[in-house]
């Protein structure tokens, strides 16, 4: 928006400071992966330590001189900070370094903008970008005069800023109205699934944990999956038929990350509600990474932020092939599945995942032998529509004997109206 963006990978200098007293430390390796995912070309990594961030430049004046030398020596086009910078800090740094400066939030927004494929996803990303840019308009018009007090001294700069702010506000209002329409459509779809009492399973987890690969393996789909951070941005839903349970809906969602920008959480509210309304969360975890425990903590933090912390979870430890271990199910003290160890890439252990899902989702199932008179064809059709009929046979009088297995809620709903079957 404010600078010309080259089509090829940009030469980037990365900056990471360890701030004393910071509760949650940023991971420099993850930051480098983010830059690579955005298409950047890291040429240098400047690291340091401070008691607290500098008010004007975030880094100290000595580190700023070092940073300027590194930028000049490497002919870098952009400097990226593994921290959140204030608008004034970005502006001051760009003035000193004579190149673009981007903080962690701006970098994640850029990745999301590259990954968005659906109309809804693009709207959500644009909303987050506009909300982020609205506080950073000033640096785009530094070449114009600033407004001064007094008659005849008011330059065009402030006028252009006010015009841009008004256009931004109008665009944000328009996008929010469209997203509210999307939210209503999603609500309608969820109500339909609730009326049909079809369970919804949502894949959640840290970015690049293998959710889309697992989704493709379970549903035999071709959702885009890559070894990149935030390869999936747009939610995808597929219907699955599970033995002894019937139809379920499986949703693939956007991955979480440490310090996920709050603007993104707000913008992706319609998408994240698929997680909030799920009956069971499949928490996919990269079991081969050293940051496994920290990643699990970050996912729980985001789930708490969006109000999904109390939804039942099944932990899915993925990438087991990298550890050369055998697939298994771990049970909790109540005898319910708590963890499934598998490899989505090879498919090993996916049958155990199906078994664990059936045990959790189908735990309130009922089994009956039902006898239906010929005039009860409507009830028979309902049982078949729910996928509840395991076997059927007829006697000489035309009475149908059905072996059925279905959720108790479906059974109670079918038994309430109309003539009762002979059991």
Can you characterise this structure?
This protein is of the alpha/beta class. It has three domains: 11-102, 3-Layer(aba) Sandwich (Rossmann fold); 197-362, 3-Layer(aba) Sandwich (Rossmann fold), CATH 3.40.50; 365-415. The protein is 40% helix and 21% strand. The protein has helices spanning 28-37, 61-74, 87-97, 104-115, 119-133, 156-195, 211-219, 262-267, 269-276, 292-305, 350-361, 377-385, 408-415, and strands spanning 11-19, 41-50, 78-81, 100-102, 200-205, 236-242, 246-252, 280-286, 313-318, 328-331, 337-341, 365-372, 389-394, 400-407. The strands form three sheets. Strands 6-7-5-8-9-11-10 form a seven-stranded mixed β-sheet, sandwiched between helices. A four-stranded parallel β-sheet has the order 2-1-3-4, sandwiched between helices. A hairpin with a 5-residue loop joins β13 and β14.
Brief synopsis:
This protein is of the alpha/beta class. Helices cover 40% and strands 21% of the residues. The protein has helices spanning 28-37, 61-74, 87-97, 104-115, 119-133, 156-195, 211-219, 262-267, 269-276, 292-305, 350-361, 377-385, 408-415; strands at 11-19, 41-50, 78-81, 100-102, 200-205, 236-242, 246-252, 280-286, 313-318, 328-331, 337-341, 365-372, 389-394, 400-407.
